[in-house]
Design goal:
about 5% helix, Glycolipid-binding domain-containing protein
Length: about 200
């Protein structure tokens, strides 16, 4: 059960945004990721709770940020309910998309698990609903993912396989690279793995 800490920063000017203290686990029915976020001032800044089924689809998502809350799941595409800080207004949404995404590294692992790509330069298109900070506003995005390299590195607990993905935003053409080792993000734009208490679990 990997457990550790990511630091999140603005990918453009590197302004620190938060630390994400996480743990995740694979099981016969899928994968679960839970985390708590703290801001640069050390105050609580939100939380993530994501459960995937065996095929990588979101069974359950719960996000908290700035007193906003989102609950979602794969249902007729993806469906969610977003609640304002007062708790008096809830807005439902539904999009013919494959899954969710956001600032948490959990979503990078979830997309990779959903796509289950083999090494190739050819990209696979995926439609995602992104919840953007700080108010978890939903936005539909189209991306292309390609598994461009698979590297094996020696590690204390045996060989570590690192998958290198090229992710392209189809609306702007902007590309970036994501490095995953099993269900842990080693590096991605705006994400740094600062500590890891136990080895990653295999994505399969």
């Amino acid at each position: 059960m990997p457990r550790g800490r990511y630091s999140l920063h603005d990918p453009h000017d590197h302004t620190p945004l938060a630390d994400e203290h996480f743990q995740c686990a694979s099981g016969p029915s899928g994968w679960r990721y839970v985390s708590q976020l703290t801001g640069p001032d050390g105050d609580h800044a939100g939380s993530v709770d994501l459960t995937l089924d065996a095929l990588g689809r979101p069974l359950r998502l719960e996000l908290h940020a700035a007193s906003w809350q989102v609950r979602g799941a794969a249902l007729d595409g993806v469906t969610w309910v977003r609640t304002d800080p007062t708790g008096t207004h809830a807005t439902e949404g539904n999009v013919r998309a494959h899954a969710f995404t956001g600032t948490s590294p959990a979503f990078l692992v979830a997309t990779a698990r959903l796509l289950r790509l083999t090494p190739s330069t050819a990209g696979t298109r995926v439609r995602l609903v992104a919840f953007t900070d700080p108010v978890l506003a939903p936005r539909t995005v189209d991306q292309s993912w390609a598994l461009v390299d698979r590297e094996t590195h020696p590690a204390d607990n045996g060989p570590l396989t690192v998958d290198v993905y090229q992710v392209t935003a189809l609306d702007t053409g902007e590309q970036h690279t994501v490095h995953l080792a099993g269900d842990v993000v080693l590096s991605a734009p705006g994400v740094e793995l600062e500590s890891l208490d136990s080895p990653p679990s295999d994505l399969d």
